[in-house]
Write a structure and sequence with these properties.
Radius of gyration: 17 Å
Mean pLDDT: 96
CATH architecture: 3-Layer(aba) Sandwich
Number of domains: 1
Number of helices: 7
CATH class: Alpha Beta
Bound molecules: flavin mononucleotide
CATH topology: NADH Oxidase
């Protein structure tokens, strides 16, 4: 198996991080990997917002937690009530990929960019985990207002389509869950 396939199969969502900040050269490589994702008509409609300031992350985290607490989904409410639960898993860096909402396919473009980043991270020994609460929170008026009030301002017409935390894992690499059977049909 070549190294790329090994990285793809070996990437896992990481939910506990060391406090150490990402090495700046590695962060640069992750961002480059994101920028080299495919995009509809090569519009590259993305923008990468990197948040590494601990107190800013804490403020955003507290608000994102309310999304879980007020969710219709009991499992999310239960998760948020757990002692010591942290939406961002105390990771040192959060990346939000916003896209121009007027582009052809910004959600796909930004998601592909983030997947490139997560795979590049895995190849460099950096953990990552998708952060859906960011998009859920930004979808609310309260969320948009909070981002503004924290000084997290996106380019005009942009909205978050992908978000993930990055950092060095503080736990062993989790085992992959078994793959669901019957998800492939070969036609012809
Ligand atoms: C659209 C999407 C939303 C997700 N949201 C979250 C999230 O908010 N918090 C979290 O811990 N993991 C989140 N995940 C990670 C999944 O739980 C994880 O990918 C899945 O359990 C498979 O585990 P693996 O990534 O280790 O293979 C999300 C993944 C996707 C694709």
């Amino acid at each position: 198996m070549n190294e790329t396939i090994q990285t793809i199969l070996g990437r896992r969502s990481i939910r506990a991080y060391k406090p150490d900040q990402l090495d700046p050269d590695s962060l640069e490589m992750l961002l480059d990997a994101g920028k080299y994702a495919p995009s509809a008509m090569n519009q590259q409609p993305w923008h990468f917002t990197v948040i590494q300031n601990g107190s800013l992350l804490e403020k955003l985290e507290t608000s994102c937690k309310t999304v879980f607490m007020e969710s219709d989904i009991e499992a999310l409410r239960e998760l948020a009530r757990r002692d010591g639960f942290s939406v961002f898993y105390r990771a040192p860096a959060l990346v939000i990929v916003t896209g121009d909402s007027g582009a052809l396919a910004p959600q796909y473009d930004c998601t592909l960019a983030m997947q490139n980043m997560m795979l590049a991270a895995a190849s460099l020994g950096i953990g990552s985990c998708w952060m859906h609460a960011v998009m859920m929170f930004y979808a609310t008026e309260k969320g948009k207002e909070l981002f503004r009030s924290l000084g997290i301002v996106f380019p005009e017409r942009h909205q978050p389509y992908a978000s993930a935390v990055f950092g060095y894992r503080a736990v062993p690499l989790p085992e992959a869950e078994p793959r669901k059977p019957g998800t492939v049909t070969m036609v012809g």
